[in-house]
Design brief:
Strand order of the largest sheet: 2-1-5
Radius of gyration: 22 Å
Number of strands: 10
Number of domains: 3
Largest sheet: 3 strands, antiparallel
Low-confidence stretches: none
Shape: globular
Distance between the termini: 43 Å
Order of helices and strands: EEHEEHHEHEHEHEHHEEHH
């Protein structure tokens, strides 16, 4: 689930009495709320709405988790980003169990709207976190272990709970978040190289800030990508070259388009595609590449092959 900022269609002075067509999605990150503020809000929600079957667990920033024991598996929920600046009517939960989810969201809004945390945020000119948006639904499923399937050792270098969790489920060891606390991409690269010295495979996740990702400043986006290349990709490639033969894969996530995401793969001794030396790491160049769309599961098999 995600903490968001909702606003009434009527603007300032109007009130939200119930989530519906006259409510707008103002900010899908609740003004980039801090983790400690979010924890306080979740504690209040759990105190009033929590039960043996429904509990909220804090994550980081605006991203958190709701567990519904024996919940309805067929409810359909939607990403709040999909209706940013629009009415939330078409994005509210539908399907089996949606009535319960909507009631939870309505009740959470009432609790959060009048909470001291939001009083302080509004007084400081920040956006209030006035609703918990339920989405990203799913059940826990058994994951194939990469370490067992490919007979390798591996680690995950990430600060996000999501990617640490994915890595752990896949059999990788998660490095301590404290080692990445400064948020510097160069630190992430050095930690990854230290893990490479001990393991066969390291999964590194890094992201640009929410201000860059969700903002509209094109220059900031370009600058962020350049820093990613200079401070993370560059040091990793240089460091790996000193440790011996290696394979390197860069992929994008969080895509919202219908086309495939660009990826860059390199392996010493690997076959170079025609014209690849002149190809850039862009969506346009990826679509023009002389290769079919990749099935990620099959590609991973090739990536980890011993030959």
């Amino acid at each position: 689930c995600t903490m968001v900022t909702l606003r009434p269609e009527g603007g300032k002075g109007a009130e939200i009495k119930k989530l519906g067509p006259h409510v707008m999605m103002d900010d899908a990150t609740a003004g980039l709320i801090e983790t400690e503020e979010a924890r306080e809000l979740l504690e209040a929600i759990n105190e009033q709405l929590g039960s043996e079957t429904i509990q909220f667990f804090p994550g980081a920033g605006h991203r958190h988790l709701m567990v519904w024991v024996n919940g309805k598996p067929r409810a359909i929920c939607n990403d709040p980003q999909s209706v940013l600046g629009q009415s939330i009517a078409d994005a509210l939960p539908t399907g089996d169990g949606a009535d319960i989810l909507r009631k939870l969201m309505d009740a959470a809004h009432v609790i959060m709207r009048d909470h001291p945390v939001n009083d302080e945020r509004i007084a400081e000119g920040q956006k209030p976190a006035n609703c918990v948006w339920l989405w990203g639904e799913g059940r826990a499923v058994p994951w194939p272990s990469l370490t067992e399937k490919y007979d390798i050792t591996g680690a995950v270098v990430a600060t996000s709970d999501v990617y640490r969790g994915v890595g752990i489920c896949a059999g990788l060891e998660a490095v301590e978040p404290e080692r990445l606390a400064d948020g510097d991409l160069r630190t992430r690269a050095s930690v990854a190289l230290a893990e490479f010295a001990k393991k066969d495979f390291v999964y590194v996740h890094a992201r640009l800030t929410d201000e860059i990702i969700h903002g509209t400043d094109i220059k900031a986006k370009v600058r962020g990508i350049e820093e990613f290349d200079q401070h993370l990709v560059g040091p990793l490639v240089e460091g790996l070259a000193k440790q011996g033969p290696y394979r390197f894969l860069v992929v994008c996530e969080h895509g919202r388009g219908a086309n495939g995401q660009p990826f860059y793969a390199f392996g010493e001794g690997g076959k170079k595609g025609a014209g690849s030396a002149d190809r850039r790491f862009t969506e346009v160049d990826a679509q023009a590449a002389d290769m079919p769309a990749r099935d990620a599961t099959k590609f991973v098999n090739k990536f980890f092959s011993k030959s």
